[in-house]
Write a structure and sequence with these properties.
The structure holds three protein chains of three kinds.
Chain A (H helix, E strand, L loop, with lengths): L1 H21 L10 E3 L2 E6 L31 E8 L1 H5 L10 E8 L2 H9 L5 E3 L5 E5 H5 L1 H13 L8 E5 L3 H6 L8 H9 L12 H11 L1 E9 L4 E10 L2 E6 L1 H10 L6 E7 L2 E18 L5 E13 L13 H30 L6 H8 L1 H7 L3 H6 L2 E12 L5
Parallel strand pairs in A: 1-5, 2-6, 6-7, 7-8, 13-14
Antiparallel strand pairs in A: 2-3, 3-4, 8-9, 9-10, 11-12, 12-13
Helix pairs in contact in A: 9-10, 11-12
Chain B lengths: L28 H11 L6 E8 L5 E8 L5 H13 L13 H12 L5 E4 L2 H10 L2 E5 L5 E4 L29 H11 L5 E8 L5 E8 L5 H12 L9 H8 L11 E3 L2 H9 L3 E5 L5 E4 L3 H5 L3 H4 L2 H30 L7 H10 L7 H21 L2 H22 L4 H15 L4 H39 L1 E2 L2 E2 L108
Helix pairs in contact in B: 5-8, 11-15, 11-16, 13-14, 13-15, 13-16
Chain C lengths: L8 H12 L3 H13 L3 H25 L5 H9 L1 H33 L6 H16 L3 H23 L19 H15 L5 H4 L9 H32 L5 H8 L11 H30 L9 H12 L5 H33 L10 H8 L1
The chains are: A alpha/beta, B alpha+beta, C mainly alpha.
């Protein structure tokens, strides 16, 4: 029908005109975007913070303004992004650095980011952020920390599964160094986090941190220490009651992970016959048993079932690792060591921190709801009084290729 | 020439329309000749040969033919010679009136194969112009029309637009009769009906409808005939004209009629119950009804092994889809949603696009248009040069553009993959439709990103869903109660699985082959397909003789091959209840 | 009406599947968990069962008046003027539902896909696209459903697989400790998610075999129940009962966290969003189609497709009424309470009861009356 054709054509024209004149609102060319790979947030401490330029050097030129103390300057936000032109660009004029890092102050993250827009030549894009670093001072400030965490979670562009770490000192410093092994800082951090070969830090991504804070009142975050040309991510930082509580050592963090049924592959060194025998832990399974004893107290028994390999002994002629007695010796030694470490950590959390960071309460709520009814109103106290017993059951599977 | 004239309806002109004026032939030879010479004034290729017949040369005859259209040898030998020489010896007594002479000439004088009597002189003239020859007898009011067609024509060659690796290489030619012959060669079944009509007021083009009488869906057949008869245009020069007149929805970019040059394809389609429209003067035969799925098929799918054929089919569909959306996806992702691709890839693309002056979708449009230009140019250039120029030109231009910094290398790769993927679509008309559609989708995704892309695809899908070809939904068998036919849609199931005909196309006999692969008992039937046997003969195990093209041997009449809306198949008996499948 | 091509029961199933699954599924895990804790999925189950029962009721109602849609037979049941009022109400219900779908769609799209694009543009394009489908006949709608159902059901389910290691099914414990009272009050939350089945009131006479309606609806609804339960279970398993109540659109958040390492598309939430656009489109278009059909029949129009564009304009303005995303959901809750429950759940049943009591229709209820007449 003619009228149908006319109508269709006029509709198409109208739509075409409308769409083309109004413009493509969200179109940002990919080379105009700044792909932030690492985000560092610090608390602004006047006098201690210096305006930093793009090359990481402190600006000492005359007339350069140092940020003043004012109610608006509360956070220092730093970002690092790669120099994509260097990657592949031909016909464009690019600088030599592999990455750029910039930093600014502001009342909250988002305004700080807008300030970046006055200095940078692209559109900041958080879709590929690999790591969020929180400075020590920030974590110690309860209000600021909660603001920052909420802002990060609410923002859709930053994925929930980015890695988080607390930096000893200023988070900003981490972004400004020029690492030896991997020039782009964000990727460097990401790759460290993805290592499976260590249980020395607690790889928590942002979503899990926030969930943990909501569910248990606290969380353990990995700790990052900045060196001159490299990082070190080990140990942890405990955040309780919405702010920093303590630093945790590497072994402590490892034990915490065991108790949470998360084992990174790691080596436990035990002393057998005067020799430091490394035992490589490959599998770990944690079981929990909860019951009320006759006195009406709630008891918790945590059993760690592990498997692993013996990695070394001494080079001797007459030795034979492949005999049951020796293996059992090693197994017992490892068990003792593990129980000791775990018990130490559990004591600390029960008595010193009074925080159920493993979500034992959750477990009780799910599996023993009748017990939960009694303790749920005062779980923190009840947790302190929980009678905990930890035991380990270790099995050695392999001993390498020599006897 | 007034190209648009044929689209305007015929108004007050006193043109002879399809109803021809009834001019009868007169019994006077001179009057007839005068009529012809008047009508055919200034047609110098018409030859008038008067001669005398009879032992005393008492009867005047005239032979009229168009030089170039006729087989002159045959005329000389069979018409002139037999009439002039042989009848000399015939005993024609003087009292014989010319009517008898006529019959004698008709029955024993002319030794040609095809002879007809014609009462109307103007119809004879049309026959004359079609390549027949006229023998006029003085004193008798009918004209003898002798079939003497013999014009120059191209021999049977491999069709250039549809070549296969495995399969027959004969293709249709421009002569309708040869084409029907190629069909007959493949389907030696009396049920293969070939009905001829003339379409086009001035061109009077012969158009033949071919179908298998006991398989075809009679509704479709009726509809086809109806639409063909309603064509009222002065000239039908190619089947494309017919196609545009009989389509359901002329404004869609998708073709609803299939055209092919391959006789094996036509034969296979007829066995599925479709109707073929063979047009004189063009090797492209139309097949209806046509669905999108059919347009994606290639005859090779049936000659190769089923597993390979299935894989290739899926590849074909995937390629078509890729060729449709790839540039749009690239634009959407790089301009709108770089968060969706892995970081390394995003950084790499950003790096390669540094310094490129155009936004992504301008890049895409430029490259696509360039490619379209190259494609068109390649078609016009002769022979192998054309193909090479297309590909090499594309590569060279792409490389040069990258080096000049005008486009990014990723864009060139995207466009190249798109082009290659679009070649996988076997039907040219569908390919064109996709090419146009691609621009539309690029435009939408350039404005609204991924959402625009999805919207474009949805709108296209709505359009496809609303299309029908002679009552068959365009997207069959993916839609509707046609699970069985899916075996021939995205994949190609083995022959033993597809032993029934597609319900959406066929209307009659629904069984192709007896599962179990046994050859039909050759002694059993007389080769006829069990038309006989009225009511209760539901299991008349008659044999369908003849080679199909590998589609099956024995056919067993099965009751209940009816369709959902309770159509009876072709008037033949349906012994059992017509339950839909 | 009767020369339209008919839809098969598979097509009805597809239409229902694509219509009912729309915007509700995004917030469903959160709303049911807010109402009933880890037992939220049971609410989903309950809602589905109710919907199935009501669908069967509606199908019986429709069989009593073969060839007529509710617009026509409502007049038969409750007198013509009341019938017209009912149909107008039904029409309004669908128009408003379209507006909500369009607005929520725009909100979510702006949040996740197109930040700076004005909502107006998103809504207009969606409405125009839906109008294009609403102008077609029901067979086209059925075919669209058939084509699209695999598209928006299979990939999201498949994409959940890489996320399974992250999920902790124990989050769904403790089992069955929610009080029934809480379950009842929570019922209102899932109402919106099942709305759409009442469209059977309109579509039944278009079926080739209307008797199959009940079976088709049941199968469709069972599938929907399974999908919804899956969505709720995976979201709760992924985030836990506490966190999930903070996420506005948990269904998407699930895909935000799932990664397919090494694949071409690492973050699949974009793909899932694109697929969800399809689901919303089908919902919106079918409701739009329903509204157009109802209007056409009330006004006894011969060719009613031209009302689509004006209606699109109306829906556009309605969609822009709420001021922010919070108001949108508040209005939506009110809508489901005052219009959704009546038109979807209550009124069809009421119509059925009245019709049976009056012994109407071809089959006269269970045929008891007829048998009584025969034997009497």
């Amino acid at each position: 029908m003619k009228s149908k054709l006319k109508r269709a054509v006029s509709l198409m024209l109208a739509a075409g005109v409308m769409l083309s004149t109004a413009g493509c609102w969200d179109r940002i060319e990919i080379n105009e975007r700044i792909f932030v790979l690492g985000l560092a947030i610090d608390k602004f401490e006047p006098g201690k913070d210096v305006q930093v330029g793009e090359d990481g050097a402190e600006q000492q030129e005359e007339g350069s303004k140092q940020p003043e103390e004012s109610p608006r300057n509360r956070l220092v936000v730093s970002i690092v992004f790669p120099n994509v032109g260097l990657l592949k660009g031909e016909g464009a004029i690019v600088s030599e650095d592999a990455k750029f890092a910039v930093s600014t102050v502001g009342p909250n993250i988002f305004e700080a980011v807008r300030q970046f827009n006055t200095r940078l030549n692209g559109n900041i894009f958080f879709g590929h952020v690999k790591a969020i670093l929180l400075g020590e001072a920030l974590v110690k400030d309860e209000e600021l920390l909660m603001e920052v965490l909420d802002g990060l979670e609410r923002e859709q562009e930053i994925a929930r599964n980015v890695d988080v770490a607390v930096v000893k000192g200023k988070a900003k410093d981490a972004l400004f160094i020029k690492p030896l092994v991997e020039p782009i800082v964000g990727t460097y951090i990401e790759k460290i986090f993805r290592q499976r070969k260590t249980g020395r830090f607690y790889p928590k991504n942002f979503g899990k941190v926030v969930t943990s804070i909501r569910e248990t009142g606290g969380a353990v975050l990995p700790r990052l220490v900045v060196g001159e040309k490299e990082f070190n991510i080990a140990g942890g930082c405990l955040v309780k009651d919405r702010k920093f509580r303590a630093w945790l050592g590497e072994l402590e963090v490892r034990a915490i992970q065991w108790l949470e049924n998360m084992a990174g592959e790691d080596v436990i060194s035990v002393n057998v016959n005067g020799v430091s025998v490394p035992f490589e832990l490959t599998e770990l399974k944690r079981r929990k048993e909860i019951w009320r004893d006759d006195a009406g107290d709630v008891n918790l028994h945590i059993i760690l079932e592990c498997e692993g390999n013996i990695e070394g002994y001494i080079l001797a002629v007459d030795q034979d690792l492949m005999n049951e007695a020796f293996i059992q010796q090693v197994e017992r030694a490892v068990e003792r060591e593990m129980v000791a470490q775990c018990t130490g950590v559990m004591d600390k959390f029960q008595n010193e921190f009074q925080l159920d960071v493993w979500g034992i309460g959750n477990h009780i709520r799910k599996f023993r709801p009748e017990i939960w009814e009694d303790v749920k109103d005062n779980w923190q106290e009840a947790f302190t009084e929980l009678s905990v017993d930890i035991s380990a059951c270790v099995k050695v599977r392999r001993v390498g290729v020599i006897k | 020439m007034g190209l648009l004239d044929r689209f305007r309806p015929k108004k007050q002109e006193k043109e002879p329309s399809k109803e021809e004026a009834k001019d009868k032939a007169s019994s006077s030879l001179d009057k007839n000749l005068k009529y012809l010479k008047d009508k055919l004034k200034d047609c110098n290729d018409v030859v008038y040969r008067e001669f005398r017949v009879g032992n005393r040369q008492q009867f005047r005859f005239a032979l009229v033919y168009v030089d170039g259209l006729v087989d002159r040898n045959m005329l000389n030998e069979e018409v002139l010679k037999s009439l002039m020489l042989q009848t000399k010896h015939a005993n024609l007594s003087p009292g014989i009136i010319t009517g008898d002479v006529f019959s004698i000439a008709l029955r024993s004088g002319l030794t040609t194969g095809e002879v007809k009597e014609e009462e109307y002189i103007d119809k004879s003239m049309i026959a004359l112009l079609s390549g027949d020859s006229l023998v006029l007898v003085d004193g008798y009011k009918k004209v003898l029309v002798i079939g003497s067609k013999g014009w120059p024509s191209r021999g049977v060659q491999e069709p250039q637009t549809e070549s296969v690796i495995r399969g027959p290489r004969d293709g249709f030619t421009e002569t309708m009769r040869f084409n029907t012959a190629l069909l007959r060669r493949r389907l030696r079944d009396p049920n293969l009906k070939i009905k001829q009509i003339k379409v086009g007021v001035r061109s009077k083009t012969d158009v033949a409808l071919a179908y298998m009488d006991n398989i075809v869906d009679k509704n479709v057949l009726k509809e086809v005939e109806k639409r063909l008869e309603s064509i009222n245009i002065d000239g039908v020069l190619e089947s494309g004209y017919i196609e545009s007149f009989i389509e359901d929805q002329k404004y869609s970019i998708f073709p609803q009629v299939q055209s092919t040059e391959r006789p094996d394809r036509v034969a296979a389609s007829l066995l599925e119950g479709r109707v073929a429209i063979i047009t004189d003067n063009t090797p492209f035969v139309l097949l209806v009804p046509a669905t999108l799925n059919i347009l994606f098929q290639s005859s090779e799918d049936y000659y190769e092994r089923w597993f390979i054929a299935s894989f290739i089919r899926i590849l074909r569909y995937a390629s078509a889809f890729i060729s449709l959306v790839l540039p749009a996806v690239y634009i959407a992702i790089t301009s709108y949603h770089p968060g969706l691709i892995p970081t390394d890839l995003a950084l790499y693309i950003a790096g390669t696009r540094t310094g490129v002056p155009f936004p992504a979708f301008i890049e895409a449009i430029i490259m696509e248009l360039t490619l379209e230009l190259l494609r068109e140019a390649g078609i016009r250039l002769p022979g192998p040069i054309g193909q090479t120029i297309g590909i090499v030109g594309g590569l060279v231009i792409g490389q040069a553009a990258v080096q000049a910094g005008l486009v990014s290398p990723i864009m060139v790769i995207v466009v190249a993959i798109t082009a290659i993927a679009s070649f996988a679509v076997s039907s040219y008309s569908v390919g064109i439709a996709f090419r146009i559609l691609r621009f539309f989708i690029i435009a939408l995704s350039a404005v609204l990103g991924l959402y625009g892309l999805v919207m474009g695809l949805l709108l296209t899908l709505v359009h496809l869903c609303s299309l029908k070809s002679f009552g068959v939904p365009y997207l069959a068998p993916l839609v509707g109660n046609t699970y069985y036919e899916l075996g021939d849609a995205l994949v190609r199931a083995p022959q033993t699985v597809m032993y029934r005909r597609p319900k959406t196309l066929a209307g009659g006999n629904m069984i192709r082959m007896r599962v179990g692969g046994a050859k039909g008992t050759s002694g059993g039937g007389s080769g006829k397909d069990g038309d006989e046997g009225g009511g209760g003969e539901a299991k008349a195990g008659s044999v369908k003789a003849g080679d199909g093209n590998g589609k099956g041997k024995a056919g067993e009449r099965k009751a209940g091959g009816g369709r959902d809306n309770g159509q009876k198949s072709g008037g033949q008996q349906e012994g059992g209840p017509g339950t839909g499948e | 009406m009767n020369d339209q091509e008919k839809i098969t029961s598979n097509q009805l199933m597809a239409i229902m599947l694509s219509t009912i699954i729309g915007i509700g599924i995004l917030t469903l895990p959160r709303t049911v968990t807010e109402a009933a804790g880890p037992d939220g999925w049971m609410l989903v189950l309950a809602g589905g069962v109710v919907a199935i029962i009501l669908s069967v009721v509606i199908s019986r109602l429709g069989l009593m008046f073969p060839g007529k849609t509710v617009v026509e037979y409502s007049g038969d049941i409750i007198t013509k003027p009341l019938g017209i009022i009912f149909s107008l109400g039904f029409f309004t219900y669908y128009v408003l539902f379209c507006a909500f779908e369009a607005r929520v769609f725009a909100e979510v799209t702006k949040q996740f896909l197109l930040d700076r694009t004005p909502s107006e543009a998103i809504i207009i394009t969606m409405l125009l696209g839906a109008a294009y489908l609403a102008r077609q006949d029901i067979a086209t709608v059925g075919r669209m459903g058939e084509m699209l159902v695999p598209v928006f059901i299979l990939p999201p389910i498949l994409f959940l697989l890489p996320g399974i290691p992250e999920m902790d099914l124990t989050n769904l414990l403790p089992f069955m400790r929610t009080s029934p009272g809480k379950l009842l009050t929570g019922f209102g939350t899932i109402v919106t998610s099942y709305l759409g089945f009442e469209a059977l009131l309109l579509f039944q006479p278009f079926m080739a075999r209307p008797r199959d309606a009940a079976k088709a609806m049941t199968v469709a609804l069972i599938s929907i129940i399974l999908i919804y339960v899956l969505a709720v279970v995976t979201a709760v398993a992924m985030f836990g009962v506490v966190e999930i109540q903070q996420l506005i659109w948990p269904t998407f958040a699930v895909y935000r966290v799932i990664e397919i390492p090494g694949a071409f598309i690492e973050n699949i939430h974009g793909v899932v969003m694109a697929i969800w656009v399809v689901a919303v489109y089908t919902t919106l278009a079918v409701f739009f189609f329903a509204a157009v059909t109802i209007l056409g029949r009330i006004l006894s129009l011969k060719e009613h497709s031209f009302t689509a564009l004006p209606l699109a304009l109306l829906i556009y303005f309605l969609a822009l009424v709420p001021n922010n995303v919070s108001q949108v959901y508040n209005y939506l809750d009110a809508f489901s309470l005052y219009l959704g429950i009546p038109f979807g759940f209550v009124l069809p049943a009421v119509l059925y009861i009245i019709a049976k009591v009056r012994g109407m229709g071809k089959e006269g209820g269970n045929g008891r009356e007829k048998q009584a007449k025969k034997s009497g």
